[in-house]
Structures are given as structure tokens and as C-alpha cells.
Amino acid sequence: MRNLPDLLMRDAALAAATNGIVIVDATQPDLPIVYVNQGFERLAGYRADEVLGRNCRFLQGADTDPLAIVEMRTAVAEGRGAKVVLRNYRKDGSPFWNEVVLSPVTDGERIVNYIGVQLDVTERRQAEEQVRFLAYHDPLTGLANRARVEERLADAIRDAGRVGHQVALLYLHLDHFKDINDRFGHGAGDELLRQVTERLTGIVRPRDLLARQGGDEFLIALCDVPADAAAVAAEVAERVTETLRPAFLIAGEALELSASVGVSAYPDDAA
């Protein structure tokens, strides 16, 4: 048995830890909380007296990953540790990504407690999600980029071939865009690209793909067209012309813009 100074030192170390620490009673069926440190109080917004005796599930919500919950429950059932990242909720209802390292504690014969060390990894998770987003999207407009287009077209062509449908592509080049950049600056040019994106988004179907190829070039992929994809693409090209016809308000001036549109269809134009 540990002496009193050792126990006091342990308690002081747990209390001083910056990470959230939760200890539950593994001898009770609902794993009630028997200890939380100040790090947990700061992390979750609950005082210790508000959580003692409760199961940790009060931190969960509708968006909490059920697979992460299953992993923790399985680890407890098997008497082993686990490490998961899941969305939890503070007392005020705000969500955060919680990295939980779960470790069993024994008395030499059986597991008597589980210690959960918790760390707010929201910023790290958001950075990871941003990296994944930028891998397939244009950072300026939020549209799909070339990498996403290649993947989506491969899927669309495969699906079309399986059911006898067609795919059409519209290549859009904004006329005289460089002149606008030169006259008003790149900031104005970026704003114009965002406004063009907003207008084009309104004319594509949910199952189609609108992408920015780079610079002043856009692409619209019409997926799963039952027949005569070239004619359908020609109709969409007309809508593109019409939607770009009204002047754009850029840098306090009304600017007129047109686009050159090229059309190709699969399988008719396939090499």
C-alpha cells in the first residue's frame, strides 16, 4: 500500500495536469466518474460536483462518431486500453474534437478503474480537414479542382457505360479576364471569379460537377445524361451565356463579362 506522501503527490500531479483527466469506477456497471481534474473542468466546462457519479456519455451528442463509442465500449469489455478521437460537447453546447486515451487500472487481480486522458484537438482536426479539402478543391472559389475532376469524370464515364447513358463537358473561358485583372487588380479579379462561381452554381444540377480548372477557366461536367448529351450541353451553354450576361459589380463599377464555351460529349467524342 502506498504511503500518504505518495498519494498526495499523485493527487497533486493529476490536479496540475493540463490535459483533462477522468477516472471511472470499473467495478460498477455504469462506470461512474469518481474523479476529474481541473484540466477536465476547463475542457468541458463542468465542475467536478456536476459530473461525479455520472457516466461519461453526457459529453456525447448526435454527431458523436458511433464507431468511436463502440471502440471504447469494446475496449472496456475486453479489459484493454484504447485511443479514439470523437466529437464531444461542452456544458454550453459547443462542440470540440476530443482525443481520449483510455487505460485500465488494476489492483493486481482485476480492473478497478479506467483513466481517461482527454485533449482538445479541435484545431488539429480542422487543419487536417482543411488539407483534405484543398486536395480536391480550389481555395478561392471552393469549387472542385483538377484532381477532383479527374476522379469524378472517371466515375461518371464508368457509370454511364454501365447503364448506356452519356456524359458531356463544357469548357468555359472568361473573355478578357486578364484585362480586368490589369485594370482593377487581382483582388477585384478574385471577387469576379467568386461572383461567377455563385452564378454558375445556380444553373448546374446537384449530380453534375462545376469546377475551376485554374486562372479564368471553368468546367461543367453533366453526368448521367440519358441521351443526346451534346444537345443537352448546348442548352446548358446557352444558360451559361444568359447567367453571365447581367453586369457584375466589381470595385464599384458595373462590368460586363462573356465566356467562350466549348462542348464535348462521351461517348460520341471519345478518342
Overall description:
By secondary structure, this protein is α+β, with helices and mostly antiparallel strands. The protein has two domains: 4-126, Beta-Lactamase, CATH 3.30.450; 142-266, Alpha-Beta Plaits (2-Layer Sandwich). Helix content is 41%, strand content 29%. It contains nine helices and eleven strands. It has helices at residues 4-16, 38-44, 48-51, 66-78, 122-136, 146-163, 177-184, 186-201, 229-244, and strands at residues 20-25, 33-36, 82-89, 95-106, 111-120, 166-174, 209-214, 217-225, 248-250, 253-255, 259-266. The strands form three sheets. The chain has a five-stranded antiparallel β-sheet, sandwiched between helices. A four-stranded antiparallel β-sheet has the order 7-8-6-11, with helices on both faces. The chain has a two-stranded antiparallel ribbon with strand order 9-10. Helix 7 packs across helix 8 (186-201). It starts with a helix and ends in a 5-residue tail after the last strand.
Q: Spell the H/E element sequence.
A: HEEHHHEEEHHEHHEEHEEE
Lateral strand order in the biggest sheet:
2-1-5-4-3
Number of helices: 9
Number of domains: 2
User: What separation lies between the terminal Cα atoms?
Assistant: 80 Å
Q: Which structural class do you get from the secondary structure elements?
A: alpha+beta
Largest sheet: 5 strands, antiparallel
CATH superfamily of the largest domain: Reverse transcriptase/Diguanylate cyclase domain
DSSP summary, beta strand count: 11
Could you tell me the CATH topology label of the largest domain.
Alpha-Beta Plaits
So what's the CATH class of the largest domain?
A: Alpha Beta
Q: Which architecture of the largest domain per CATH?
A: 2-Layer Sandwich
Radius of gyration: 28 Å
* Principal-axis shape: elongated
Helix content: 40-55%
Stretches where pLDDT is under 50 for at least 5 consecutive residues are none
β-strand percent reads 25-35%
Give the rounded overall mean pLDDT: 90
